[in-house]
Amino acid sequence: MANRIAQHHDSLEFEVVVAVLWHIWKTRNNFVFRQQHLNPIRVIDLALASVRMAQLINSNKGGTRCHSLKSDDVWRPPDPGFLKVNIDGAFQVGGNEGTKVCICRDQNGKMKDGLIRSFVASSVLQAEFQALTITLHYLLEQNKAHDLMVIEYD
Fold first, then answer.
1. What is residue 83's predicted lDDT score, i.e. its pLDDT?
2. Is 67's pLDDT higher than 50?
3. CATH 3.30.420.10 is the classification of domain 62-154
4. CA-to-CA distance for 19 and 46, rounded, in angstroms?
5. N- or C-end of the chain: fewer Cβ atoms within 10 A?
6. In the predicted model, is pLDDT for residue 120 greater than 80?
7. What is the mean pLDDT of residues 4-10?
8. E strand or H helix that includes residue 119
9. 94 φ/ψ sector (left φ>0, alpha ψ -120 to 50, else beta)
């Protein structure tokens, strides 16, 4: 099985399977530890969205710096030795929940880490701020305070 995984680890199908398994695991943990229920269709939607985001980032390849992306910006790899952290927050008007995603990639575009998390929010601005704040806390928890990185958000 390990050989089969090694042969297909770069395939879209493998990414989808990993994303679905990850989201099932997160949903199970949210149910067990937070008593949060999530529609199974929503779990699959989140998994496919995370795969799509990774595809978009990969399709646009060329101390800590941080800047906001403009709509005409394309993803470029960080300098050698740096990690690039892409962050996005989402909020649906009329709802009370935001979702954030961050993806950490090296100079070759290889994913090194990532995080998807839901949180209470009441506006787009609050969701974007929470996305940045949660990501920074996560990076500190992962002992990345002294790593060289570029942080991008929109």
1. 92
2. no
3. yes
4. 9
5. N
6. yes
7. 52
8. strand 111-120
9. left
